[in-house]
Amino acid sequence: MEIRSDFLVIGSGIAGLSFALKAAQTGTVSIITKRSIRESATFYAQGGIASVSSKEDTFEAHIKDTLYAGAGLCHKDIVEVVVKDAPARIQELIQLGVKFSSRSTGADVELDLGKEGGHSKRRIVHAEDLTGRAVEEALVAAIESNRNIKVFENHIAVDLISHSKFVENTGEEIIWGAYALNKDTGEVYTFLSKATILATGGAGKVYLFTSNPDIATGDGIAMSYRAGAEIANMEFIQFHPTCLYHSKAKSFLISEALRGEGGLLKLKDGTTFMKGHHPMADLAPRDIVARAIDFELKKSGDDCVYLDISFKPSKFIKERFPNIYGKCLEFGIDITEAPIPVVPAAHYTCGGVLTNKDGLSSLSRLYVIGETACTGLHGANRLASNSLLESLVIAERASIHARDVVRRTSGPIPAIPEWETRGAVVSDEAVVISQNWDEIRRFMWNYVGIVRSDKRLERAQRRISLLKEEINEYYWDFKITNNLIELRNISTVAELIIKSASLRKESRGLHYNIDYPEKDDVNFMKDTVLKLGVEPA
Ligand code: FAD
Ligand code: SIN
């Protein structure tokens, strides 16, 4: 089956839905999403959206904090664009119906601003500790009432449709849409479009322990790499310092906002430790806090550290953090009375498909927005709550650019062949998939995690080369399924992370290699860029 629209949006988190609403003002939009429309990292975002919103704060301060966290690799022009556009994007969300937390100051009502690691001021706009859910629900409601938008749930994009592969090789690469598997019928559909927008989120599932939902398998990054796009800075994987440590909790985040409200990290015996690691103590940038916890755990041999907010009034905790309070209580932890056991976990992919300020990748008609992209905003470490913001700002800019491209498209989309199955049969060995998944996630955690070394990276490279060969063989022999598509993508993303980490022979931001513990500005104050078939410079 062939489905045509002006814009094809892959992914239904904040980036994809924000783009779709704007593009639908002038054209038809197909959104494909691999589970239900709401299932996304966006839905689980807690802390909020960074935006200068008070008289005590300035754009300069937000820019400075972002640059400091990014450890020398942020692109200053993009930082300025994103920070300065934030208040307009917040207003837009409010108009869409998002109810951010507010407080009255005498006669006025103003936004209640949270604080998080690395921020010098209170500037986190939030909806209690359920910000992502509030934003996603408002976007979904607007999408569902828009007649120019058609949503295809349970459809997983398999590969991008590139001009050179499916039409003819003219030298310039153009993307005309994507093949996607309808998971309900098992058929692969051809989605054709004049502009394709990848908004598939991050790749936390490459690691054994992650705050991310199951959808975060780096599909957009892997598909773009296979299609020949430039991928940047994949060594910078952000580990969130505080995920709940409990045998029954799969991946529950304890927001940094807790520390913003005074919560303290403690060892088992109740001593605090962050002051010994950084002057900003518990509110230092995330790379520093995660590494400090890793250091303390290795030193003590304990399984977790503790985050304590129990000394704050119980009413305040329950009203400010209803989600975290309720969830922890389900696991038998009353956070108004006891500290919370926490460990770091993979949280955010700072690298991704390299784009410009308008979300345009190195391939014609392919826009990449949200966590899948590497715009240069985050550099070597993302500042808390700058991700939802980046998604909103770049989705807006990409929509302006892409609408113009679509408007100026005169000829039809070229004829594209249907997906070929090449005699593939249904697999009777699903165990191969689960075995390889587990293996990748475990060695990525152990060898390519918070602390790396040359030896660990070499070990990881050897293992991923072998596994990729096996997965590739399996991929072409058997009918594709959701798990097989994700496994193939996870293995590609793992290899990109290992390669990028091996190339960066220094320690900077989120990339820490014990063989090169210092920053090397002379040789490495630059992005790591990888492209299929091209040896990195
Ligand atoms: P997502 O919201 O992850 O959406 C990706 C979409 O793509 C999903 O719909 C998915 O199903 C779909 N998809 C993926 N692959 C395919 C495919 N092959 N085919 C079809 N569909 C596909 N950031 C902040 O700024 N502030 C916060 O407070 C905050 N809190 C967070 C809390 C948690 C627990 C987590 C996990 C992240 C948090 N982050 C936060 C990060 C932030 O939520 C994400 O970076 C952001 O939501 C990413 O948005 P996105 O639209 O790019 O991707
Ligand atoms: C959090 O609430 O701690 C997550 C914020 C973020 O990832 O930006």
Q: Notable features of this structure?
A:
537 residues, alpha/beta, FAD/NAD(P)-binding domain, Flavocytochrome C3, Chain A, domain 1, Methane Monooxygenase Hydroxylase, Chain G, domain 1, 3 domains, seven-stranded mixed sheet, four-stranded mixed sheet, 20 strands, globular, binds succinic acid
Task: Report on this structure.
- The chain is 37% helix and 18% strand.
- It is α/β, with parallel strands linked by helices and 537 residues long.
- It has three domains: 293 residues, FAD/NAD(P)-binding domain, CATH 3.50.50.60; 111 residues, Succinate dehydrogenase/fumarate reductase flavoprotein, catalytic domain (Flavocytochrome C3, Chain A, domain 1, Alpha-Beta Complex), CATH 3.90.700; 92 residues, Methane Monooxygenase Hydroxylase, Chain G, domain 1 (Up-down Bundle), CATH 1.20.58.
- The strands form five sheets. Strands 1, 2, 8, 9, 10, 11 and 18 form a seven-stranded mixed sheet that branches. Strands 19-17-12-20 form a four-stranded mixed sheet, covered by helices on one side. It has a four-stranded antiparallel sheet with strand order 13-16-15-14, covered by helices on one side.
- A hairpin with a 5-residue loop joins strand 10 and strand 11.
- Helix 1 packs parallel to helix 5, helix 1 runs parallel beside helix 12 and helix 13 runs antiparallel to helix 14.
- The longest helix has 24 residues.
- The model has no long low-confidence stretch (mean pLDDT 96).
- Bound molecules: flavin-adenine dinucleotide and succinic acid.
- Flavin-adenine dinucleotide binds next to helix 1, helix 2, helix 5, strand 9 and helix 12.
- The site of flavin-adenine dinucleotide has 43 residues, from helix 1, helix 2, helix 5, strand 9 and helix 12.
